[in-house]
Amino acid sequence: MDSKQISLYPEEAMRDALQAVRNGMPVKTASKTFNVPRTTLLYKFKGINHESRKMGPATIFSREEENLLVQWLLQMAKSVFPISKKKQYMQL
How far apart are CA 24 and CA 28, in angstroms? Predict the structure, then answer.
């Protein structure tokens, strides 16, 4: 479930832009010159790592709780006679 957005710029362009900023070029100018996102360039220059952040809402269950819930649901499905789609339509 871990998806990443694909970069729309070459990695070498970001590397060159970072080097230009380290050499004194303003971030906005480097962003336009090398055609890379300004905020991404700024974050990389400042060393801010967004890889560790997760997108989406916070989880409710821990990984262990979620696994226990899945196992319980699977056991319940095996012990009780699950109703097929065909039987559901017949009951309507």
Answer: 12
Q: Are 34 and 16 in contact (CB under 8 A)?
A: yes
Question: How far is the C-alpha of 21 from the C-alpha of 10, rounded, in Å?
Answer: 17
DSSP 80: S
What are the tens digits of pLDDT across the range 54-87? 678 888 889 999 998 888 777 777 777 665 656 5
Q: pTM of the prediction?
A: 0.49
Cβ proximity of 6 and 40 under 8 Å: no
25 exposure class (CB count in 10 Å sphere: 0-12, 13-18, 19+): middle
